[in-house]
Specification:
Blueprint lengths: L1 H9 L1 H21 L12 H12 L9 H4 L2 H16 L1 H11 L6 H10 L8 H27 L5 H16 L20 H15 L2 H8 L1 H4 L4 H25 L11 H13 L16 H13 L12 H16 L5 E2 L2 E2 L2 H28 L4 H12 L14 H16 L1 H8 L19
Antiparallel strand pairs: 1-2
Length: 446
């Protein structure tokens, strides 16, 4: 038994997997309590597990409406799970350890390195401090902005509550809302204050804490790291291309952007371009979008946010590395070069591995759901990709899932939050150093 426990806690990836699983189970138990439901009745285990997984993995897919089904206590449980899941349980644990002035051990630093997607443990505790400071500062700003806007629609107390909840949810790219009746932000489709604040929170939460630190210290250093440059350029490019594509496809769609004035059309297209970057909120009905728009959103959800952020997907840097590799191959170049820096081939191999792993997971889950669920294929693919990318957008399938379908989506949310490579490292034995290499061979490609 002790040998099994040592095996489980020896590897940082295994600790991350176990830690997230433990948080989800605790959240499930709390959400099953009668006090968590507005009706005062106990929530079924599978529904509580689904919600707890979705909140901890900052996804936003829900089988019951958060704003009407859960009591205030239950909503606070969901919000706590979002915050812990967004920052990471190790980051929260380190915060308490620093507060108690306890020294952070080497093993804890290694787990933090894995959790924050860093290449070394150097400066990892300083980064945690920055993560916590930036998170609470940005969430406080978002809460204040939302509260001021909601004051015209509701009482001061409710406006403050709505402001805090949506600020935390949107910054952590969770996609949960308490507007009621699965409406998300459709009532505010033309409201610049709500839309711009939400998009700012989503983007800041999605670019990653390393980039936030780089931007905050730019006035002192007058330079950005290669990672930050790639993330910012890819984020801006994906948002711009997404806005133009969705604006073009939905311009005349009478069920979405067609009836809106030109300015609101552009705002709605921009919002729907930002949200698939793992945020999961929408200002137009996703199910009413044209199929071309829905498929394009699937691509955006698959790419996702950036490393070290609160979002999921294969990540913007992975996508950038793949594009760089393709361009280098077309030009006949041996190296992948970005901003006059050469990428190590190991990085390119890792990007390819992550992408193929993700494609395999999405494909397998889609095939299973296509068997268990009697719905349109695009709707199923959309749901699976949304779960893997920890996005939370849906075409309406979530509430109609069978028991088997709920289990598959729960697993996809869990895998998407941890990342397929983290899980594979946690399960696979540590490889030893090879004692020999095979002779080189050649195959024909293309």
């Amino acid at each position: 038994m002790w040998k099994s426990i040592r095996w489980l806690t020896k590897s940082p990836p295994r600790i991350l997997v176990l830690g997230f699983a433990a948080i989800i189970l605790i959240g499930t138990y709390l959400l099953m309590l009668p006090i968590s439901a507005a009706s005062g009745q106990s929530t079924p285990f599978i529904d509580a597990l689904f919600t707890a997984t979705s909140a901890t993995c900052v996804t936003g897919l829900v089988v019951v409406d958060t704003g009407t089904y859960y009591s205030v206590f239950g909503q606070w449980i969901v919000l706590a799970l979002i915050q812990i899941g967004g920052l990471g349980f190790m980051t929260m644990g380190t915060l308490f350890a620093l507060f108690l002035k306890r020294r952070i051990s080497l093993s804890e630093r290694l787990v933090l390195q894995e959790a924050l997607n860093q290449s070394s443990i150097e400066g990892i505790v300083r980064l945690v401090r920055k993560v916590v400071i930036y998170t609470f500062a940005i969430e406080a700003f978002g809460a204040a902005a939302f509260t001021l806007r909601f004051l015209s629609d509701m009482s001061a107390g409710q406006a403050l509550y709505f402001g805090i909840f949506h600020s935390v949810s949107f910054f952590n790219n969770a996609g949960f809302d308490i507007m009621g009746d699965f409406r998300s932000l459709t009532e505010y489709v033309g409201d610049p204050a709500v839309n711009l604040t939400a998009m700012l929170m989503i983007v800041l939460g999605g670019i990653g804490f390393v980039v936030l630190a780089d931007l905050a210290e730019y006035r002192l250093n007058r330079r950005l790291s290669l990672h930050s440059k790639v993330v910012l350029v890819m984020t801006a490019s994906l948002i711009t291309v997404g806005t133009l594509v969705l604006f073009f496809f939905e311009y005349t769609n009478a069920r979405t952007m067609g009836p809106l004035p030109f300015g609101e059309k552009l705002l709605a297209a921009l919002f729907q371009s930002v949200s698939p970057r793992t945020a999961g909120v929408n200002s137009v009905d996703i199910a009413s979008l044209r199929q071309a728009s829905q498929f394009f959103i699937i691509l955006l959800m698959f790419i996702g946010a950036s490393p070290g952020s609160t979002g999921g997907g294969i990540k913007t840097t992975t996508f950038a590395a793949l594009i760089g590799a393709v361009i280098s191959m077309i030009r006949g170049k041996e190296d992948v070069v970005m901003f006059r820096y050469r990428l190590n081939k190991e990085r390119v191999y890792k990007a390819l591995t992550v992408t193929l792993f993700a494609l395999a997971l999405v494909t397998i889950a889609t095939m299973i759901l296509a068997t268990t669920e009697d719905h349109h294929f695009l709707m199923i693919l959309f749901e699976v990709t949304s779960a893997f990318g920890t996005v939370g957008l849906t075409m309406g399938l979530t509430t109609q899932l069978t028991l088997a379908g709920k289990i598959v989506i729960i697993l996809m949310m869990f895998l998407g939050r941890l990342g397929p490579l983290t899980l594979s490292y946690a399960i696979a034995p540590k490889p030893g150093k090879p004692l020999y290499r095979y002779a080189e061979g050649k195959i024909i490609i293309g």
